UniProtKB/TrEMBL annotation:
Lineage, highest ranks first: Bacteria, Bacillati, Actinomycetota, Actinomycetes, Micrococcales
Lineage: superkingdom: Bacteria
Source organism per UniProt: Microbacterium bandirmense
Protein name per Swiss-Prot or TrEMBL: Cell division protein ZapE
Matches recorded under PANTHER family: AFG1-LIKE ATPASE (PTHR12169:SF6), ATPASE N2B (PTHR12169)
GO biological process, one term: cell division
Claim: ATP-binding is one of the keywords in the record: yes
């Protein structure tokens, strides 16, 4: 049963957003929390020198490096190794890869540049067709691809072909993906996976390893916040008083996500200040779980607090899933859900 808790309450299950190709292209900019991301505001962890090293390389990639010293009377000017047209940031969750990617976007003086997740670019191809997408993006100075996915061979092949055509026309590329930290060797060499899967484009990329600890987990206890029914009602009501909050049964949201293309998930949460999910349960169906991961990514991009009852959201994915081929995606989603439930305190 759906419970109305306030005047500003909406239901995700009643939203059926439509997004045009033009709107999708216009939305290819960094998420709101990275509007002000710069190299200067990136705080490299001294315990992990690879963070500062990656930052300095990206400064140079964005054309912000120090000018090359001129030759003296009796010495030659030092030679710099030319940068490749693409950089790939390889590292675990929460080490600042997206911040650095957004910093590249903001620092590169370009008339045409785009920033989006892998799924947003593949959705653009799905909406406009391959040729039209190439025609629209051709001539862009920079393409930033966050969370490059290697799970679907078809999507990977399409993106590799697309990137190859854009590089040939002079476009610079910057991409990220995730590697679980300290995962007993699993995924520790995601860069090798990336280069193997995009073999036709591998020579165009310089890989930058970024080690570190997930910053989202540094200030929290590692578990998602679970509310009782009274606390949940209060959180929804408080958010609804100043704006809009969603209030939905978790299972109904999961069913609704199957009816909405992932490229439109961002529109599901338009105008909201809080997401409410009642009676969270463990997901055992892979398709449902992956759709929920895509939804969590959009909620995290929008930095919307999440209020939830039922099963703790860090336990929403069944154990067998965490041991399967999509482990990286699920761990990333858990990291983000933990942070979003803790952000209720600041809402």
């Amino acid at each position: 049963m759906t419970q109305q808790i306030g005047t500003g309450v909406v239901h995700l299950t009643e939203r059926t957003p439509v997004v045009t190709g033009t709107e999708m292209l216009a939305s290819l900019v960094p998420p709101p929390q990275f509007d002000g991301a710069t190299f200067e505001s990136y705080r490299a962890d001294d315990a992990y020198p690879s963070q500062e090293e990656a930052k300095q390389t990206l400064i140079r990639f964005a054309g912000r490096g120090e000018p090359v010293k001129k030759a003296g009377l009796f010495r030659r000017a030092p030679k710099e190794t030319p940068m490749k047209p693409g950089v790939y940031l390889d590292g675990g969750f929460g080490v600042g890869k997206t911040h650095l990617l957004a910093a590249v976007y903001h620092a590169l003086p370009a008339r045409r540049k785009y920033f989006g997740s892998f799924i947003e670019y593949t959705a653009l191809v799905g909406a406009l067709g391959y040729k039209n997408t190439v025609d629209l993006l051709r001539g862009a100075d920079l393409l930033c691809i966050d969370e490059f996915e290697l799970d679907d061979p078809g999507d990977t092949m399409v993106m590799t072909r697309l990137l190859g055509e854009l590089v040939a026309s002079g476009t610079k590329l910057a991409a990220t993906s995730n590697t679980p930290p300290n995962a007993l060797g699993e995924g520790r060499f995601a860069a090798q996976d990336f280069l193997r899967e995009i073999h036709a484009m591998s020579e165009a990329f310089q890989t930058l390893r970024i080690d570190g600890v997930d910053y989202r987990q540094r200030a929290i206890d590692g578990t998602a916040v679970v509310l009782d029914h009274a606390e949940y009602a209060h959180a929804i009501e408080r958010a609804a008083e100043s704006g809009s909050a969603s209030d939905d049964d978790f299972s109904e949201v999961i069913r609704h996500l199957a009816q909405v293309h992932p490229s439109r998930y961002i529109r599901l949460i338009d105008g909201l200040e809080l997401i409410g999910l009642r009676d969270v349960r463990v997901l055992t169906d892979q398709s449902e779980a992956l759709r929920f991961v895509a939804f969590v990514d959009r909620v995290y991009d929008a930095q919307l607090p999440v209020a939830a009852t039922g099963v703790s959201l860090d336990g929403v994915f069944a154990d067998e899933m965490l041991g399967g081929g999509y482990r990286k995606k699920y761990l990333r989603a858990i990291s983000r859900l933990n942070a979003l439930t803790h952000s209720l305190d600041a809402a």
